[in-house]
Amino acid sequence: MAVLGGVVSACIGADGETCPEARLEAVRAQDLKEKDCGARMWREAIQQVLISETELHRRIQALGEAITADYRGKDLIFVAVIRGAMMFSADLARAVDLPLTIDCIALSSYGDRHVSSGRVHIFKDLSESIAGKHVLIIEDIVDTGITLQYLWNHLMSRHPADLHVCALLDKRARRQVELPIKYTGFDVPDAFVVGYGLDYQQRYRNLPFIGILHPEVFEKERLQV
Ligand code: IMP
User: Fold this and answer.
1) What's the domain count of the chain?
2) Which of 7, 79, 164, 204 satisfies CB 3.0 to 4.6 Å to 194 for a cystine?
3) Which H or E element spans position 139?
4) What single-letter DSSP state applies at residue 12?
5) 143 counts as catalytic
6) What is the CATH number of the domain that holds 67?
7) pLDDT in tens, 66-119
């Protein structure tokens, strides 16, 4: 509020009205306060904030620059794996300074549990052909690699010009199937993470950061089985 107070007082006109810049600053400060309330509400479920909103933003800008350099002059299509990669793909697409198209595919191997079932289902397939296109899979997290392998085979059968992977998070410790990941946002430890699109039982996707879910949340799940 101290900084905000300075801005406001510098922008108050003779009639006592604040200028548009000051009002904007006030709105931003209010947003921050509300985010803080949100974080407080989730505190019991989140053991640790692993990657902050600022770190996510910086890394995604850097990934966007790398993709821009690598795909210049190519017919690029993002295949966003929803729902987990919806926040990431939306922000990454805006960090890429090239014309591109975006399609979505809905997959699941987790159901509502925190341990992968190992069985992958396609709930929604692509809407357009990827034949002859430069396809970049946008994943939220690669864990065992089973989902990615399934998706890779599925997309390769549709004859893209080339196929690569961009994963926000890489949980290497649990890998069972190795596939090349061309762009990685962050390596993460062997813990169940939520936020910024990643869920546990469809919740926590709207957290603006990536956090480690408190094991007590799983404990409740175990007791309910
Ligand atoms: P994999 O097949 O084991 O690599 O799992 C990939 C999918 O499982 C991801 O796309 C996520 O939807 C989900 N997943 C894996 N680990 C986590 C996690 O820590 N938090 C939330 N979802 C996860």
Assistant:
1) 1
2) 204
3) strand 134-142
4) B
5) yes
6) 3.40.50.2020
7) 999 999 999 999 999 999 999 999 999 999 999 999 999 999 765 555 666 668
